[in-house]
Write a structure and sequence with these properties.
This protein is mainly alpha-helical and about 100 residues long. The chain has one domain. About 80% of the residues lie in helices and about 0% in strands. The protein contains 4 helices and no strands. Helix 1 packs across helix 3. The radius of gyration is 15 Å and the shape is globular. It starts with a helix and ends with a helix. The mean pLDDT is about 90.
Length: about 100
């Protein structure tokens, strides 16, 4: 029974990291130095596109899964690294370092 709870805990942690990445992309989109309409579009569209691609290719129940473990893991790491870079570019360097450290 304990092994099941460990698996659930790990999956919950990964899911929270994914949500954190989506929040980072949204924060970045809203803090781009441009017009208000573009900010809102980027804040909504960027995490939506990333979440759609994640769901199609990288999620445990992906519709078009990437079966190669090294490639799938590398792509997930790239998403987390880019999310950290987005936080850093938005002026949130401390959160970027924390998010990168936790996600790696």
């Amino acid at each position: 029974m304990e092994i099941k709870w460990i698996g659930v805990s790990v999956l919950t942690g990964f899911f929270l990291l994914e949500l954190g990445a989506m929040a980072a992309f949204s924060y970045w989109g809203y803090h781009i130095k441009t017009g208000a309409a573009v900010k809102i579009i980027l804040a909504v569209a960027t995490p939506l596109v990333i979440a759609t691609l994640w769901g199609m290719f990288l999620s445990p129940k992906a519709s078009l899964p990437i079966f190669s473990f090294p490639i799938r893991t590398t792509l997930k790491l790239v998403v987390f690294i880019v999310a950290s870079a987005a936080l850093y570019a938005s002026g949130q360097s401390a959160f970027a370092v924390i998010f990168l450290t936790v996600s790696l």
